[in-house]
Amino acid sequence: MGNDGKEAFLRLLSTFFIVSSKEGPFMTAQSGQPRSSLWHRFLVRSKIKQTWPLHLLLLVPIVMVAIFNYGPMVGISIAFQDYMPTKGFFGSPWVGLEHFQYLMKLPDVPQVIKNTVVISFWKLVLTMFSSLLFALLINEVRNRHFKRFSQSVLLFPYFMSWVVLGGIIIDVFQQTGAVNKILTSIGLEPLSVLVDQGNFRYLLYGTNIWKDMGYNMVIFLAAISSIDPALYESAVIDGANRWQQTLHITLPSIAPMIVLLVTLALGGILNAGFDQIFVLYSTPVYQVADIIDTYVYRLGFLSAQYSLATAVGLFKSLVGFVLIIISYWMADRFAGYRIF
Amino acid sequence: MKTSVSYKIFSVFNYTLLSLMVILCALPLWHILMISLSAPGPAAANEVGLWPIGFMIDNYTYALSQQGLVQPFLTSVQRLLLGVTLNMLMVIMAAYPLSKESSAFPGKTAYSWIFIFVMLFNGGLIPNYMLIKDLGMIDTIWALVLPGAVSVFYMIIMLNFFRQLPKELEEAAFIDGASHIRTLISIYLPLSIPSIATLTLFASVGHWNSWFDGLIYMRDPNRYPLTTYMQSLLSQLQRMTSSRDAERLAFTSRRGLMMCYIVITLLPIMCMYPFLQKYVKSGLVLGSVKG
């Protein structure tokens, strides 16, 4: 970068940093320069002469984020427009809150929100519970090889795409699939979980456990392995059996980790798992399985109701924003966790 | 260690339960592998259990032919290489400056908030799609790699790692007259190879497994990456499960092929798995411990 380019770059930054460079101690001013000029004060306070390569490094990521993350935030305004693709972003008329009022009257919306929260909640509870249970069980295994082997097998589905898992699940659970074959061979009625409103959610919970349990289990096992062995030794001297050790040492020791995972998951309670539901659901089970994300997808891409779909998406983003703030605050308050 | 009778009983129960769980997890995978290796007849009639019937590898030879998976596979590989490279570049470029103290790098806090806000709020599906469309990226590989190029989560993991490196190294480099860029390349990067390897693996799995962006940003099915292609086949299959017509019959005769596609999609993950498993703990420790 030539000196002229560098100078221009510095000047560009100066407008931004005069405001934000309040933090940090004053740098010892270089002598001989007039202290009064704004430009000079910027040079000193921002330490720009030393730090300009840092700004330069950040330039590309910031531009990318500005385009691909902040760009769509501007696009949210079509939720307040009657967006027509032929007229475009600037030509479409503004309608204010009309779409939101319309959405309040749609019978689908309360059902979709209810589905989202219910599915998300039970997935969280069941997956956490089974992860914890199996972490404790695996922890009791004395045989090292079996311990490692079972961990490996249980963790593997976590790295599989829902598309692949979905392919397997649909094949195994379809009317003529392996599960029904087993059921009929032992004299039971065949199930049709994929299209049955009564059972579809159980399929979602069960397959979610299949995919995610291993990961949480490994986190719990890592937390368990970092517990001070002296605690167990003294408990043994006090005559505590394995169950009492688990109850009074293991569980309280990993409680912060449980609290952390649950609070962080609460922030994403409106993400009920688009991928999973999208690959598994079909028209007969929309009533019980349609969540906000799948609803937005169908509204936007299949019905071409762009404005309406954006309005639903905005609702989700706003509520999600509040929930994430609360969950981060709780994670900090109860588990001492900070993202930065 | 002393073991009571009740603990022995528990142990037996424990091993049994865990073995059952392991079998339950692994059996479906084994089952589809066997279907993919069976003759079309028994596969379609669902006679295949845990052993192939009429063993053949025709499904695999078809899948590796031009009509099969070759094009989607290549698109996926292209996406993975390009996407992961971009991810890592962005992560390093953003994490190095942000790992500095704000006294040494005034403005750091402002930059940080620009990134953190992205984690808290997003534009949503439709505005994202509109943006990609307006940028003219539909049907190009850029639609799959650019929107997710900056991963704030990976960035936080990386910058927490950078912060753990001893300050003295950096100071010594500066005293020797090294610039920031030079310090990053000669000091920071060689020391953080384990973290970079971990993130590269996770980013690779992420790119390999994602399918939804392919579905919405690619109009031409010939441009679908592997998982998106699989999903489009799957949605046909899904529609058939609720109907009982001749079409379904035609499709089930291709069941073995479908399962073969699933196995092929899984292969790269299986190859990476030993490393993934090894790094999963370090990754989560880096990510979740307060930096």
Topology record:
The complex is a heterodimer of chains A (340) and B (291).
Chain A: H1 3-20, H2 38-46, H3 48-75, H4 88-91, H5 98-105, H6 108-139, H7 144-155, H8 162-173, H9 178-185, H10 200-225, H11 229-237, H12 242-267, H13 274-280, H14 286-289, H15 292-302, H16 306-335
Chain B: H1 5-36, H2 40-44, H3 58-63, H4 70-98, H5 108-120, H6 125-134, H7 142-145, H8 152-164, H9 167-175, H10 180-191, H11 193-209, H12 212-217, H13 226-241, H14 246-252, H15 255-288
Helix pairs in contact in B: 1-15, 4-8, 4-11, 4-13, 8-15, 9-10, 11-15, 13-15
Distance between the termini of chain B: 39 Å
Distance between the termini of chain A: 32 Å
Work out the oligomeric state of the chains in this entry. Answer: heterodimer
Number of strands of chain B: 0
As a percent range, the share of helical residues of chain A equals: over 70%
Average pLDDT level of chain A? 84
**What is the number of domains of chain A?**
2
**Strand coverage percent of chain A:** under 5%
Q: From the helix content, strand content and strand pairing of chain A, which structural class follows?
A: mainly alpha
Radius of gyration of chain B: 25 Å
Classify the fold: give the CATH topology of the largest domain in chain A: MetI-like fold
CATH H-tier superfamily of the largest domain in chain A: MetI-like
Number of helices of chain B: 15
Here the CATH topology of the largest domain in chain B equals MetI-like fold
Describe the structure.
The complex is a heterodimer of chains A (340) and B (291). Chain A has 340 residues and is mainly α. Chain A has 2 domains: 3-78, no CATH class; 98-335, MetI-like fold, CATH 1.10.3720. In chain A, 72% of the residues lie in helices and 0% in strands. In chain A, helix 6 packs across helix 10 (200-225), helix 10 (200-225) packs across helix 12 (242-267) and helix 15 (292-302) runs antiparallel to helix 16. The longest helix of chain A has 32 residues, at 108-139. Mean pLDDT of chain B is 85; it is low at 285-291. Chain B is mainly α and 291 residues long. Chain B is globular. In chain B, helix 1 packs across helix 15, helix 8 crosses helix 15 (255-288) and helix 11 packs antiparallel against helix 15. Chain B contains 15 helices and no strands. Chain B folds into 2 domains: 1-56; 58-290, MetI-like (MetI-like fold), CATH 1.10.3720.
